[in-house]
């Protein structure tokens, strides 16, 4: 692999535990000989007028140029006159789909050991369009926006994902019996795209029934695609099925095929700087980035090394009931590699 030209990828180590778990990713990638060259960008300490946020214009340009990146957690600075970092990234890079693989980690016991599903959340509209106002005193209104363009785009991504990742079925999650126009349009778009993928089974499941089925038997699902609000809730529900936010990776897909992977958790200020953080979520996010780049061999090797280390149980961080530091756990993964 040393003969291949390195692929440049943007790395935002982020705040709090971010730099510690980003160091873990860099070490594991080096050990596995992954042909990635990181372009590191930190969040600035003042507002960049060009982005109206603490994210620099250069860092956004870096993601646009490279098309791939990995993002650590970013603390939301308290104060006025700037946009939230995550919102800025989502808007500026047009990150329209949030993809979360959720599978049981062998050796880490939870209520279920057969979870293997993917949630794909529309990330730009729905109830999160930010269109809320007061009609008269005591009456407020929030607009839920669903467009054909965004629905087709996320549905297309879901079916393409299913096809390229050996998945058999896509379930569209909705409440079209009540939200007839909005969710109705979302479903219509999913059906249209489904016709182009006859080899992938397609079904529609009402959100309330979906929740019941997920907690009763998560193995009933394969790939789930849904509008923004449902995706926000269901994806956390699914994270809970496999052991929590410390283990769950995600990847944001943007315009022009941009992939920005990120852990689901925050900057964990309570344990920052103590070499205690669990790097698993960020490492598995980095694995989703490798899969996006179709570096399947590297992705498999790293994922196996992480899962084997956790399953072996000798080195685990405190959140998983162990007493290993971030660096000891990372070294153990590298030994498995
Ligand atoms: P958090 O996820 O940072 O922490 C919640 C709890 O989980 C803490 O006890 C923490 O120690 C623990 N935890 C989280 N990740 C862990 C890991 N990898 N290993 C071990 N333990 C871990 O949530 P919070 O405290 O609500 O938020 C802290 C900051 O992070 C806030 O500024 C918030 O805005 C930000 N945040 C950012 C993102 C993001 O960048 N995507 C997401 C959520 C929160």
Concise account of the structure shown:
Its cofactor is Mn(2+); Mg(2+). With 337 residues, the chain is of the alpha/beta class.
Please provide a written account of the structure.
The protein is α/β, with parallel strands linked by helices and 337 residues long. 38% of the residues lie in helices and 20% in strands. It contains ten helices and twelve strands. The protein has helices spanning 18-31, 57-66, 85-92, 148-164, 182-195, 207-216, 228-242, 280-292, 296-312, 326-336; strands at 7-12, 36-40, 68-71, 95-103, 116-122, 132-136, 139-142, 169-174, 201-206, 223-226, 249-254, 258-263. The strands form two sheets. Strands 2-1-3-12-11-4-5-10-8-9 form a ten-stranded mixed sheet, with helices on both faces. Strands 6-7 form a two-stranded antiparallel ribbon. Strand 8, helix 5 and strand 9 (201-206) form a beta-alpha-beta unit. Helix 9 (296-312) packs across helix 10. The longest helix has 17 residues, at 148-164. The radius of gyration is 20 Å and the shape is globular. The model has no long low-confidence stretch (mean pLDDT 93). The structure holds nicotinamide-adenine-dinucleotide.
